[in-house]
Amino acid sequence: MSEPIRVVVTGAAGQIAYSLLYMIAKGDVFGPNQPLILHLLDIPPMMGVLEGVVMELADCALPLLRGVVPTADPAEAFKGVVAAFLVGAMPRKQGMERKDLLSANVKIFKVQGEALDKHADKNVKVLVVGNPANTNALICSRFAPSIPRENFTAMTRLDQNRAQAQIAARVNVPVANVNNIVIWGNHSSTQFPDGSHGQVKMDSGKTVSVREAVGDDAWLRSIFVETVQKRGAAVINARKMSSAMSAAKAAGDHMKDWFHGTPAGQFVSMGVVSDGSYGTPKDVVFSFPVVIKNKKWEIVKNLQIDDFGRKMLDITGKELEEERGEALAII
Ligand code: NAX
């Protein structure tokens, strides 16, 4: 068995972390032969709660878990880590404007970027989950100049998983039979869930395009898009709390693919620093379809974008440019 790797989860006393820590510690993300030491970062008032999480991790008696480092100090949290799940963020409180939320989070992700820069492994893979995830990831990377920009990503995998589940339900196949659904742009209500490049393996064993399997382009462009865009709100309405189990699963999926690669012929969606592909704005963290090999992602090129898609990409790109402008004005 190899040496333990160090992995940090921020917001470790929160609800997403509660599911995510167990998944990581039992080997679902880094593999069944990879021991690890978990670093758990939260804020000082949450240290008591975090102690309870540490007790539960011990009580899980997980063979791969070789150590746990609970802390409120970003320097200690990021020391030597090769993977970082940045889940912790300031939640939106009643009466809070979007701008106030952005302001609080930009400051958090500046501090964390600086701490990663100083203390993390230079190859650290960073996944930002805390909202506004795309812009937080951008800010974080700007304050960690010694770490390659491509090592900073934002999570849109939950949106992708939601989209796959909607298609699977619509055509009545297991969710694993649906592939290559793309989430473009921001993890917000302007995101563009795009089924037009997807494939479905039908019960007959034949693989067909999502468009053919669904047989209803109007549904793919309206109800499907809106359902995925508003799924987070629907969960909050029903559960009175935001998505946590599914968000943790998606964070695990994202990091697992980053470490182990994507299967041949399949792509996944990740928020990455845009190089302007598909006419998107450069230097925002934009969700693209990517393939991953040897721990490096590459944007899938040459997908056909029709007029409807173009309009959707432009809307979400514009929102990301606005967020970047607001964030940079705060710093
Ligand atoms: P919780 O409020 O349950 O937990 C957040 C935790 O972060 C708290 O324990 C809090 O003390 C901690 N925290 C706050 N500031 C911190 C800091 N500076 N350093 C370390 N820890 C800090 O929220 P939870 O439901 O776990 O959600 C976490 C974040 O994920 C939120 O920002 C949420 O909006 C975002 N989400 C993002 C998703 C995505 O797809 N990208 C989907 C799920 C989720 O809504």
From TrEMBL:
The lineage of its organism: Eukaryota, Metazoa, Ecdysozoa, Arthropoda, Hexapoda. This is Malate dehydrogenase. The active site is at H187. Substrate binds at R92, R98, N131, R162. PANTHER family: MALATE DEHYDROGENASE. It catalyses: (S)-malate + NAD(+) = oxaloacetate + NADH + H(+). Gene3D superfamilies: Lactate dehydrogenase/glycoside hydrolase, family 4, C-terminal (3.90.110.10), NAD(P)-binding Rossmann-like Domain (3.40.50.720). InterPro entries: L-lactate/malate_DH (IPR001557), Lactate/malate_DH_C (IPR022383), Lactate/malate_DH_N (IPR001236), Lactate_DH/Glyco_Ohase_4_C (IPR015955), Malate_DH_AS (IPR001252), Malate_DH_NAD-dep_euk (IPR011274), Malate_DH_type2 (IPR010945), NAD(P)-bd_dom_sf (IPR036291). GO terms for cellular component: cytosol. Its EC number is 1.1.1.37. Belongs to the LDH/MDH superfamily. MDH type 2 family. Keywords: NAD, Oxidoreductase, Tricarboxylic acid cycle. NAD(+) binds at D42, N105, V129, G130, N131.
